[in-house]
Amino acid sequence: KQEVTQIPAALSVPEGENLVLNCSFTDSAIYNLQWFRQDPGKGLTSLLLIQSSQREQTSGRLNASLDKSSGRSTLYIAASQPGDSATYLCAVNGNNRLAFGKGNQVVVIP
Amino acid sequence: GAVVSQHPSRVICKSGTSVKIECRSLDFQATTMFWYRQFPKKSLMLMATSNEGSKATYEQGVEKDKFLINHASLTLSTLTVTSAHPEDSSFYICSARVGQGNYGYTFGSGTRLTVV
After folding, report:
1. Distance from CA of A94 to the nearest CA of B (A)
2. B33 near B23, Cβ under 8 Å?
3. Which residues are B78's β-sheet partners?
4. Strands A72-77 and B44-51
5. Res A106: pLDDT
């Protein structure tokens, strides 16, 4: 059974600092990995999708890396803004099902 | 992009009544949809996988008679919580695969169910 761990569970950073969110998974046999953002009481918004053959994906200030062999992915958010405050979820896609971590709860302080 | 519309966003019902939650794929056909439940500060828990025109596949421990899933068309899946009790209060989210081959997932906006 795939186990997904996200560290840290929560963090607060001053505006302008770079954010580094970590995700680790136990089974490296995956199709892809997806990072989502969730605001309180809302659904999930897809941020980045990395295929198993890729090492990283970038979208604007967001960059996600994937090291499948070591079971790790990292989401980098450059120059954080208060609007980046949310919970970030890592989801690993293997065997046609998603396994989620518990999330990184981020607060960016103005 | 592919959008899944979920309604209602929140519902309060009395204990013993049934509640229906709808998820519609707006600009694509979703042959498969997924229903999740989310507890505070917990991971999303997959409840069941619904396939258009066939019976849903439920995860272990999920009562199929309590959580009725119907996927009658390529754009609509419904989850009905029957005879709801306070312990069914939770956040329910649907999802669908997007794309061919190495696909991703798109999610609805979620439904906050409160049973009083």
Report:
1. 11
2. yes
3. B22, B70
4. unpaired
5. 97
Residue with tokens 């312990």: B87
pLDDT in tens, A38-95: 999 899 999 999 999 999 999 999 999 999 999 999 999 999 999 999 999 999 998 7
pLDDT of residue B42: 81
- Per-residue pLDDT band for B102 (boundaries 50, 70, 90) equals low
For chain A, give the number of residues: 110
Which of these, B26, B63, B48, lies nearest to B94 by C-alpha position? Answer: B48
> How many C-beta neighbours within 10 Å does residue A22 have?
15
Q: Using CA atoms, how far apart are residues A10 and B41, in angstroms rounded to an integer?
A: 11
- DSSP annotation string for B22-80: EEEESSS--SEEEEEEE-TTS-EEEEEEEETTS--EEPTT--TTTEEEEEEETTEEEEE
Q: Are B43 and A43 an interchain contact pair (Cβ–Cβ within 8 Å)? A: no
Average pLDDT over every residue of B55-74: 93
| Shortest distance, CA B36 to any CA of chain A (angstroms) | 11
Q: Do A34 and B105 touch (CB under 8 A)?
A: yes
User: Residue B115's beta-bridge partner residues?
Assistant: B13
Name the B residues in 4-43 with CB < 8 Å from any A CB: 6, 34, 41-43
